[in-house]
Design a protein that fits this description.
Blueprint (H helix, E strand, L loop, with lengths): L2 H27 L7 H8 L3 H7 L3 H20 L8 H24 L4 H16 L10 H24 L6 H14 L9
Keywords: DNA-binding
Organism: Fusobacterium simiae
InterPro entries: Homeodomain-like_sf (IPR009057), HTH-type_Tx_Regulator (IPR050624), HTH_TetR (IPR001647)
């Protein structure tokens, strides 16, 4: 690679990073539907032409962000076997959330981002459960119920924890959510 090509690649990397950081900051400030390309490019100090060189629309940028989150999370849980390692996968979800901070919290908890969250959940569920031997023994309808339960329970617990401003420590919410998710309500009332 020539020195000129290296500089160009570094400029491309830097420009895309600035676009994504600016986009994330805007999402923290307002709902996605209210963000405009003009506002993003003004804040990122680039022109619209530069934005369109990398993305056709804000939807493309949002989709890429969602795909990156899904891919990274799937990579972090790929060594686990379901349903045996559900607790480990749940723990990874909370650690992943902590790593990505407020932006991940917003797209996970805010009702305006249900479509993003559902796409990420579907990607993760399909990738993590597809190799499960135990899942192959369930009917399509039983799989649907299982996926629905795990999604609803885990996301609801997470959203409530965020809504309560994380008054329970990270370790405690992981333990609590694992107990509820894997062992049910009565697990909270058993004596240690």
């Amino acid at each position: 690679m020539t020195e000129n090509a290296e500089k160009k690649d570094l400029r491309v990397i830097k420009t895309i990073r600035i676009i994504k950081e600016t986009f994330k900051n805007l999402i923290l400030e307002k709902n996605y539907e209210k963000i405009t390309i003009k506002e993003l490019t003004d804040r990122a100090e680039i022109n619209k032409k530069t934005f369109y060189r990398y993305y056709n629309s804000l939807d493309d940028l949002l989709l890429e962000t969602q795909n990156e989150f899904s891919k990274e999370y799937i990579e972090s849980v790929k060594m686990y076997e379901l349903p045996n390692d559900l607790e480990k996968i749940n723990r990874e979800f909370y650690l992943f959330s902590k790593k990505h901070g407020e932006f991940f919290e917003k797209i996970t908890c805010d009702i305006n981002y249900n479509y993003i969250r559902q796409k990420m959940i579907n990607n993760v569920m399909n990738s993590t459960w597809e190799y499960s031997e135990k899942l192959k023994n369930l009917s399509e309808y039983e799989k649907n119920i299982l996926f629905s339960y795990i999604q609803a329970a885990s996301i609801s617990i997470y959203k409530q924890w965020v809504k309560d401003k994380k008054k329970i420590s990270l370790d405690k919410i992981i333990e609590l959510s694992n107990n509820l998710l894997c062992r049910g309500v009565f697990s909270l009332f058993k004596k240690s």
